């Protein structure tokens, strides 16, 4: 439709504009009367603890005098259920078909406006009328080129004096043709992983990694093992220590799966494990050999040194069996 002439666009607009002000449905009765269980479920889901919605005694002490439904539940009472589709033989369905047939097949809801005249009370049966309020001229949006369609729903209850308007529900959608996608650019060179940070405290560890050794510290005063590398012993405060090479075997103590944020240097999602080595220290590292959703606490792992580029080799842990 967006490639047609101005005359074609004007002709199409004239057709769809005829639907403005046309009633689509009238006197439709809600599937359920206003009831306590639905109000309670809604209040719990929304975290609304106002007792006027669920506590008859508290509600009786208010100016309402009884339990009332939350105003923002207005649309809940007119929903037609999960299996209710839009029949083509309704006026709205007919209008939507015009848009689909003319290339505006995509749809997105844009906004909703409600007006509350009075709250609904338990036992009241809601009715509603629906009309097509406006159809806009063609608009260019971030999603594509299309038309905004505004539908107005007037919501009533039947009273002694006849139908009483208790609220309105106005919602707007955009029927549009998506913008044509631009060709994908050639993939950029893969980003580098974060660089290791080497200092005087951990240099011995990284020197070991460069030699294919997984090292941890042991206090020479009290023999307590520790990791990560640190200047002093947390157990006895001694500054004397030695490096010990681990056999690299251990178990998954805990783990997380990284989904977000997405780092360009990593293939998402990926698993990061806290590994308890057989020597008693714990280290972080990627878990290899299984998919991220197959990692389990207690799985046996073995260290494996992974070289990502000329400047970065890090230890990871490959699953080798169950504990």
UniProtKB/TrEMBL annotation:
It comes from the Bacteria. It comes from Embleya hyalina. InterPro entries: ChsH2_C, ChsH2_Znr, FAS1-like_DH_region, HotDog_dom_sf, NA-bd_OB-fold, Thioester_dehydratase-like. Keywords: DNA-binding. GO terms for molecular function: DNA binding. SUPFAM superfamilies: Nucleic acid-binding proteins (SSF50249), Thioesterase/thiol ester dehydrase-isomerase (SSF54637). Residues 206-242 form the ChsH2 rubredoxin-like zinc ribbon domain. Gene3D superfamilies: Hotdog Thioesterase (3.10.129.10). It holds the Pfam family zf-ChsH2. Coiled coil: none annotated. Residues 244-306 form the ChsH2 C-terminal OB-fold domain. The keyword DNA-binding applies. Residues 33-158 form the FAS1-like dehydratase domain. This is DNA-binding protein.
